[in-house]
Structures are given as structure tokens and as C-alpha cells.
Write a structure and sequence with these properties.
single chain; alpha/beta; Gyrase A, domain 2; five-stranded parallel β-sheet; three-stranded antiparallel β-sheet; 19 helices; 14 strands; about 50% helix; RNA-binding
Length: about 550
RNA sequence: GCGCCCGUAGCUCAGCGGAUAGAGCAUCGGUCUUCGGAACCGAGGGUCGGGGGUUCGAAUCCCUCCGGGCGCGCCA
């Protein structure tokens, strides 16, 4: 099912064309119809300021109201269109036809689980990479926010007809891993009875001691290197492997799963992506040598400064690795679009990464980097500090154990990425009407309850005539359901998943209002069947939004 | 100092250049002998941080100031 709005916009565009052919509208380039949903019901279901914008394009003397009249007069007929009015300075207000609205209930039931699907992607391939936190410790609430955004965006893009792959980039190389290995090895040596001091700037958490103990329990002292020798890679590898497993299971708890996990180390294989990417940059003339280091000449691409690719000591920077990684995404695996989701602390990395992609000869428009602002954890009024010091870390796992995946996802989703958010543990776990999470899920459970009751009483949605649905609350519910395809389209374009929880609330409200106004199962068998069909459709729509958000749709609560 | 983000109701937040700026919670007042009351209806509550500008029209775009967050590494 395509969205109604798209169809109406096409009608308006056609109307302008016809009116221009007829000479009643000046032959200027017509602005897009841009139908919006008016705040006030008397302005109809959809409104367009097309005539106002057209008047501006047509220049002085053009009368918006007259243009609106001309457009409306040339509007092709369509079963969805009820009344069309011209209002105010020249708005065109469209009211949907009630028989058509009612008929959409059957269309939604026919679409079933696929209701809301669009064909915007036309099979194009998109990669969504998110979280990708260093495997040097457990992931925290901030990472959880990225995980929820990423997995939800992936779900929406899938619904929009893209071939989506989700990926976690495992930073298992580089200087942070060296530091991690050194810290872990120090603990390990102590367990083996050797004196050792963890690096002063090393990883301080208690989990490091536990990791060392685990490795010691499994391997005894056999990983010990000669005194004074550098920490063995094996120690770091084992630590990383364990932490990646933990990260994987913590994220699974949040209902986040990945299609693939990509190792940074693998970039450095002989003749691997790193070498290939660097060679390409050389060939394209974007590499310079200076002060003993190798630089990407990003100033040639409009950046404020150049960036180091290879340090004076010969080791590649994180930036260089990331370039090789994106070389693989675009030039080897051939994704049409890549979405990277990073925390606000990576803001500075955005523009140089875009420049690097440009340097690789890839249109930077194909890289969409989303930055989300950081999370403040609260317990009621009290701010829970997220210091990196040991003991102060609140892990994602702890939050999940406390509030559950559904509430966690809903809370993270309801704020836009651009706003710093407070995550109130107390509010999130409160199972009451103060909590919007349950408001939405309750609507679904309530529907399931009604359908159970109906079955017990022998009422059935089969052969119900949806044209009996005439009550304002019934039609309001249908209107609300019909905006789901539009929502999928909008989130696909804007990549702003916070629109989903807001829509879910409105849909639930429309259902609760219908339930209060209209008795579903009654003595009137025909009406009961029709309303059961509406109820069934509402369940489909609610389950779909909940599904897109990665939330459960409970039969009972 | 420079860059990015934010500032909207008591609180947490929506608001796609358009019509009288919305929701949830909180507060106050109502609804229900029947399908799930974790519900429904209503009320109060706003200098959209301040000031300029563009526009027929600005919470939205531009400039500037104030306040807050995050960056500005041969860290990741």
C-alpha cells in the first residue's frame, strides 16, 4: 500500500499541469505540493500551501486564492478525495472521503504484517554501522542509545524496501588495544605470582581483574612471557574475544543483532584493505609526507587542516584504519549508501571522514553520518555520574536488568538525536500510567483481549462490511493508521527515528478513544463484525510500529 | 578562540517556512452497572533564551548576544 499522501500530491501536481495547459495558471516551475497534516480538524485531513508558493514564483500580481481555485478546478477525480476547499490566504484543504477511509480497513488487513512497507529503496543496498565501541570494556548506556537508533533505522529502511546490512566495527587493533593488553597482562602476571604494575593511564575497572582471573583459570601461567618482555598478543586477543562476546550478548538483550562484525585488525592483512586504500589515495594525489609522518592532504578538499595517516613511528592512525574500512564498504562491498552512527564525542571526525571518502573518489553524499548527543543518567532528581573510573560505570546490562528492553528502547527513541537526554531510571521502570511505554503496549494487549472475548462469544471479523464504519472515532482511527506508510517514508528520508514513538502514542490514543466511544462486540452482529475488522487492522498497525521500534507487542499485560 | 548540537508549559520533550504553538507526566475537575480503568473527557498553565533582519507569513531561515553540552591529538 502506498501512502495516500503520495497519491494526493500526485493529483495536485497533475492539476497544476492541467491548469497551466489551460492557461489559467502561469507557466512557471511548480513548487512541490508538500501536503501536510493541519493541526485543526476544520482544515481537513491534508493541506497544501502550493498556491501561495506558486503565487510567489509567478511574481507580482498573482493572486494565491485565484490560483488555488484554478488548481482545484483541474483536480482529477480520485476515490479517496471527499471535499476540497480553499481557505484563508489560499490554502488547499483536502478532506478524505469516508467510504474510502472505511474501505482502507480491508486494505490494511490484506497487507497484514507488511502494512507500512514501501518501495523507496528499490533494492538498493545500505549498510548501517553503529555502536562499534572499543572492546576494552563493557558497553554503557550511551552506547545503548546508539544501538537503539541504529537498529531502528535499519528496521525502517528494510520496511522502505532497501537491502540493509547492520555491522559492528570491532576496534581490535591500535594503541588503545595495546594499552588494554598491557593492563590485562599486569593483572595476569600478578596472578602468576610476578610483581607487575598496571600502566598509570590504563583501564581501571574491576572487570579487568576478573578478565585476568578468567584467563589465568583457563590457561594457568602458560601465557607468561619472559620477565621484561612486552605483553603477549595472545593475552589481549583473549580479553578482546571475551569482551566482544559480552558486548554481543548485552546488545542481544536490547534486541539488537548484527549481520556482521568487522575486525579492524583484518584491514592490515598483507595486500589487505589498508594497503589498497593507501595506494589509492597516493594515486589520486592526496598523500603528502611531512615532519616524518604521512598525511592526508585534506586541505585540498576544503578541510581546515591535513590529518595524519601514518605516525612518525610508522604505525597507522585510527583515521587511516577508518579510511581503509570505508574503502571496503564502498569500493569492495559496493554499498550504495553507508550510514554511520556515532556519539557526539566523534563530531570532530565527521568532516575529515567525508573528505577522506571524497579522496577515495566516492561521492560523499553516499555517506550519512548521524551524531547523537550524550546521555545523562538520572535516578529521579539525582544525576548518576558516568565517570570512567572504576565502579562508576553504569553498564547497559545493569540498566536493562533494571528497566527492561522495551522501556529502554522506547525512552531512547523518543528523543531526537540532537538533544542531550536525561535517562530517568525511576521513570523508565515505573509500571504505571506515568509511563508512556505501557500506554502503547496496553492498547495492543487490550485489542488482543477484545479479540479473545469476541471469539468466546462467537463474534467474528469474517465477512464484516467495513462500510458500516461511520462513527467519527472509527474514522479517526483509520486516518491514524493510514499515516504509518507516510511515517516510514519520512523516517527513511530524515533518519529521525524519534518520530516513531510519537506516532505510536497517537495511534494508541486513537484506539483507546474508539474503544471508549464504540462498543465492539454487541447484539448487532453485522456492526460487531465490521468493528472487529477495524480492531484487527488496529492490531496490525500497532504491532508494526512496535516491531519497527524493536518492542514487543504483548497479548496480555 | 574556532566548529557541531541544544535552549519551546512546573518537568521530560514534539513541532516537516504557513492558519489560534502541541503531547506525555504533574496539578485541578469530570466519565464508567456491559468487550481489559495501565482507559476516556475537560480545565488551568507559553515574552518559543534576549535582540535585530529576510518574508505576504518565522519556534522554524540569516546575523548577533546570553546560557548549557561535546569536540578542536602523530587518542579512538
Amino acid at each position: 500500500m502506498a501512502g495516500v499522501r503520495d497519491e494526493l500530491e500526485a493529483l495536485l501536481t497533475e492539476a497544476v499541469r492541467r491548469a497551466q495547459e489551460g492557461g489559467v495558471v502561469p507557466p512557471v516551475a511548480a513548487p512541490p505540493p508538500q501536503l501536510e497534516r493541519p493541526q485543526r480538524p476544520e482544515h481537513g485531513d491534508y493541506a497544501s500551501s502550493l498556491a501561495l508558493r506558486l503565487a510567489r514564483a509567478a511574481g507580482r500580481g498573482a493572486n494565491p486564492q485565484a490560483l488555488a481555485r484554478a488548481i482545484v478546478d483541474h483536480l482529477p477525480a480520485h476515490p479517496a478525495v471527499g471535499a476540497v476547499e480553499i481557505a484563508g490566504p489560499g490554502f488547499i484543504n483536502v478532506r478524505l472521503a469516508e467510504p474510502w477511509l472505511a474501505s482502507q480497513v480491508d486494505a490494511i488487513i490484506a497487507a497484514g504484517e507488511r502494512f507500512g512497507d514501501q518501495d523507496l529503496g528499490r533494492g538498493r543496498r545500505v549498510q548501517v554501522e553503529f555502536v562499534s565501541a572499543n572492546p576494552t570494556g563493557p558497553i554503557h548506556v550511551g552506547n545503548g542509545r546508539g544501538a537503539v537508533f541504529g537498529s531502528t533505522i535499519a528496521a525502517v529502511l528494510r520496511a522502505a524496501g532497501y537491502r540493509v546490512e547492520t555491522e559492528y566495527y570491532v576496534n581490535d587493533g591500535g594503541s588503545q588495544i595495546a594499552l588494554f593488553t598491557a593492563t590485562l597482562y599486569a593483572h595476569y602476571q600478578r596472578l602468576c605470582g610476578r610483581e607487575a604494575e598496571p600502566p598509570a593511564e590504563g583501564y581501571a575497572g574491576e572487570y579487568m581483574r576478573e578478565l585476568a582471573a578468567r584467563i589465568h583459570a583457563e590457561q594457568g601461567a602458560q601465557l607468561l612471557a619472559p620477565p621484561g618482555a612486552s605483553p603477549p598478543d595472545e593475552i589481549g586477543l583473549r580479553g578482546v574475544r571475551t569482551l566482544v562476546d559480552q558486548i554481543r550478548s548485552d546488545l542481544a538483550e536490547l534486541r539488537v543483532r548484527y549481520d556482521s562484525w568487522y575486525s579492524e585488525r583484518s584491514l592490515y592483512a598483507p595486500e589487505g584493505r589498508y594497503e589498497q586504500a593507501m595506494r589509492l589515495l597516493h594515486e589520486r594525489g592526496y598523500v603528502t609526507e611531512r615532519e616524518g609522518a604521512t598525511w592526508l592532504a585534506s586541505t585540498q578538499l576544503g578541510e581546515d587542516k591535513d590529518n595524519v595517516l601514518v605516525r612518525r613511528d610508522g604505525s597507522p592512525t585510527y583515521f587511516a584504519a577508518d579510511i581503509a574500512y570505508h574503502y571496503d564498504k564502498f569500493l569492495v562491498r559496493g554499498f550504495d549508501t553507508v550510514v554511520d552512527i556515532w556519539g557526539a564525542d566523534h563530531q570532530g571526525h565527521v568532516s575529515r571522514m567525508r573528505a577522506a571518502v571524497d579522496a577515495l573518489g566516492v561521492d560523499p553524499e553516499r555517506l550519512r553520518v548521524l551524531i547523537y548527543q550524550l546521555v545523562t543518567l538520572k535516578r529521579g532528581q539525582e544525576v548518576v555520574r558516568l565517570s570512567k573510573r572504576a565502579g562508576d560505570i553504569i553498564t547497559l546490562r545493569e540498566v536493562l536488568d533494571e528497566v527492561g528492553a522495551d522501556a529502554c528502547r522506547f525512552f531512547f527513541l523518543s528523543r531526537s538525536m540532537d538533544s542531550q537526554m536525561d535517562f530517568d531510571l525511576e521513570l523508565a521502570k515505573r509500571q504505571s500510567n506515568e509511563n508512556p511505554v505501557y500506554y502503547v503496549q496496553y492498547a495492543h494487549a487490550r485489542i488482543a483481549g477484545i479479540l479473545r472475548t469476541a471469539a468466546e462469544r462467537g463474534a467474528t471479523p469474517d465477512r464484516g462490511d467495513v462500510q458500516l464504519l461511520r462513527h467519527p472515532a472509527e474514522l479517526a482511527l483509520v486516518r491514524e493508521m493510514l499515516t504509518l506508510p507516510e511515517l516510514v517514508e519520512r523516517v527513511t528520508q530524515t533518519l529521525e527515528p524519534h518520530l516513531l514513538p510519537h506516532y505510536a502514542m497517537e495511534l494508541a490514543t486513537a484506539f483507546h478513544a474508539f474503544y471508549t466511544e464504540c462498543r465492539v462486540v454487541s447484539e448487532d452482529a453485522a456492526l460487531s463484525s465490521a468493528r472487529l475488522r477495524l480492531t484487527l487492522a488496529a492490531r496490525i498497525a500497532l504491532a508494526r510500529v512496535l516491531g519497527l521500534m524493536g518492542m514487543s507487542a504483548p497479548e496480555r499485560m
